[in-house]
């Protein structure tokens, strides 16, 4: 879990030509049209969010030079109603941002500057849609694993919050017994088997230490990713006949 901390920063918004393919835009339009049959068209354009906690580095000269590098222009034809914006998932830094920030840093810009990119979508429809309807439309045009949907550019400032990870928690296995690990398995959704819990109990007691939630999560993740190795490395008995080799040995 992470805690958001809002710093005093400055964010400037610019527009740009959409880099969505016509095919992808039509795909979004057709998906949205199933819920909003009266929609006439769907328009898209890029939005660039330039942020810094040092306002002095965002001088007109610096910003003009920066926008020429990322092909951004003054924001125009922006309609707040019947529109939504798809941005990188809040709490993350997108690959595009990492690459762009590195490029501008190597171009001589102050390292305090960070850039993110979003896509503004306008729903061409005669009626004023409710917030709920707009969110529903937005969810047809985003990837919930990597993106978020917002309804106005002001909300994009949340992209630049500082997220401070909470400290890990210790499971008191030594003091309270096996039941604490069993409880952690359920609370954290680790899906550990009884054998795996016994393995962890034995080894942590041998080391005379309590496990942390981070350690258990890493163990469960590795177990989930590589469970096939445990299965294929097992001893196999088929029709009562033990096999000499396991499946990972030819």
Based on the model shown, name its key terms.
single chain; 250 residues; alpha+beta; Helicase, Ruva Protein, domain 3; 2 domains; two-stranded antiparallel ribbon; 9 helices; 36% helix; extended
Question: How would you characterize this protein structure?
Answer:
With 250 residues, this protein is an alpha+beta fold. It folds into two domains: 2-164, no CATH class; 173-242, Phosphoribosylformylglycinamidine synthase, linker domain (Helicase, Ruva Protein, domain 3), CATH 1.10.8.750. Helices cover 36% and strands 22% of the residues. The protein is built from nine helices and ten strands. The strands form three sheets. The chain has a six-stranded antiparallel beta sheet. The model is unreliable at 1-5 (pLDDT under 50).
| Beta content | 15-25%
> What is the first-to-last residue Cα distance?
44 Å
How many domains would you count in the coordinates? Answer: 2
Outline type: extended
- Poorly predicted ranges (pLDDT <50, ≥5 residues)? 1-5
| Helix fraction by DSSP (H/I, runs of at least 4) | 25-40%
SS field, number of helical segments = 9
Mean pLDDT: 86
Strand adjacency order, main sheet: 4-2-3-6-5-7
Counted beta strands: 10
C-alpha Rg (nearest Å): 26 Å
Main β-sheet description: 6 strands, antiparallel
Give the SSE string.
EEHEHEEHEHEEHHHHHEE
Structural class: alpha+beta
